[in-house]
Design goal:
Oligomer: single chain
Distance between the termini: 49 Å
Helix content: 55-70%
Shape: globular
Largest sheet: none
Structural class: mainly alpha
Order of helices and strands: HHHHHHH
């Protein structure tokens, strides 16, 4: 295969991946509309780490779950879990189920694996494009401020 053919092949793979990622990210955003503004804030401030799936998971679905449940609830949940508090046991289970159900090979999660801690739209193309897609989604819902 000549260089020009390989470049064309690589470009088509990149475009295909981006199209699939955008569609998958949009479908994920549809599941958590209240958390999308917070997700955009975290993408823009460099607080996403799409490579982290354990502990304080900062992949796409893990971040949305943390936003949904809130930091205070998560911290209380961690303290209360051993005390038999059923509400917080349920929250822990929801977090665990969400993170366990993350398919790291999904186009959306694969896109976010290219965003590391500290990456912002100014420093990382995947972060920039993700922020753009999130803004477009928010705008389509009349939620962009």
């Amino acid at each position: 295969m000549r260089d020009s053919q390989m470049t064309t092949f690589a470009r088509s793979d990149i475009i295909d991946h981006a199209i699939k990622a955008r569609l998958d990210i949009i479908s994920v955003l549809e599941t958590s509309p209240r958390e999308v503004t917070g997700l955009l804030r975290l993408v823009e401030s460099g607080e996403i780490n799409g490579r982290l799936y354990e502990g304080e998971c900062k992949c796409l679905l893990g971040t949305l779950t943390h936003l949904k449940l809130g930091d205070a609830a998560l911290n209380k949940e961690r303290r209360s879990y051993d005390k038999g508090d059923e509400v917080y046991k349920c929250m822990l289970q929801q977090i665990s189920d969400t993170i366990r159900s993350v398919n790291s090979t999904s186009p959306a999660e694969r896109w976010f694996t290219y965003i590391g801690q500290g990456d912002t739209p100014e420093t990382n193309i995947h972060s920039r494009v993700a922020a753009q897609w999130i803004r477009e989604w928010l705008d389509s819902k009349g939620m962009l401020k």
